[in-house]
Amino acid sequence: MSVYLFQISFAGIFLQNIHSFFMIDAIGVIGIVQGLIMPSIVTIFAFVLIVVNTIAKKSHWIR
To answer: How far apart are CA 13 and CA 15, in angstroms?
Structure first.
């Protein structure tokens, strides 16, 4: 169950970043650091959490 919730959360992050990058031009509006680097770090961190959660589920650390 937790793996699916992390995947749904990742989908939300991904859609939010697509909106920021392509529809409202966040880099031009709020700058390179807040518009590109921070969302990229959040996306990478969310992906790492999905990988760790999947490994934990396969190792039976969580149900």
So the answer is: 6
Give the domain extent around 21. Answer: 2-58
23 occurs within a structural domain? yes
Q: CA-CA distance, 39 to 43, in Å (whole number)?
A: 6
Number of structural domains (the chain) is: 1
- Report residue 1 as tokens: 């169950």
Q: Are 45 and 2 in contact (CB under 8 A)?
A: no
**pLDDT, tens digit, 9 for 90 and up, residues 12-59:** 999 998 888 888 878 888 888 888 888 889 999 999 999 999 999 999
Q: Is the dihedral of CA 38, 39, 43, 49 positive or negative?
A: positive
